[in-house]
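Q: Structure tokens for this one, please.
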Amino acid sequence: MRASGAAALPDSDLAYLRLLIGAELLAIDFHTRAIAARKKLGPALTATFRRALADERAHYALLSKAIVDAGQPTTGPGDVDFTYPLGSFATRTSIARLGWRIESLLLGSYLGAVENVQTPELRLPVGQIAANESQHVSAVAPAAGKARIGRAFPAALSIEAASDALDAFES
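A: Here is the predicted structure, written as tokens:
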């Protein structure tokens, strides 16, 4: 993914990059907290969350590089404080349900970006990340009481809807 300067990316693509970076930071924070509660999760779900955390970190690094390459500052893990509903990390099921909700939010955010980004160099990596987020949704679904295979056409979220959903987790 190349951008030769700030003018290389339209404002709408920069807005999507900022949104997706925020979503990745939420996922990184969630997975870190979930792994810390590994005694409640058991080994298989802990392994799933560890893999997802590694993926989210890779997504974050790629998106951050793209925005920095465009001449813009990026947001880092210490720049946002996240909050979760009471009891979110109390049981295996509550953790899995929250993980499914967050991963579904990321999937919808990336699908919205696939639909709307204008820069050709962004489309493939954003689509690849959407595919990976779909794997995360599927992997956590059974523990969350959801079907492993979801809808044939998952919903794409508008940038406004994705932003509103992310706001629910920011303190």
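A few notes: Residues 100 and 140 are 6 Å apart (CA to CA). The longest helix spans residues 43-69.
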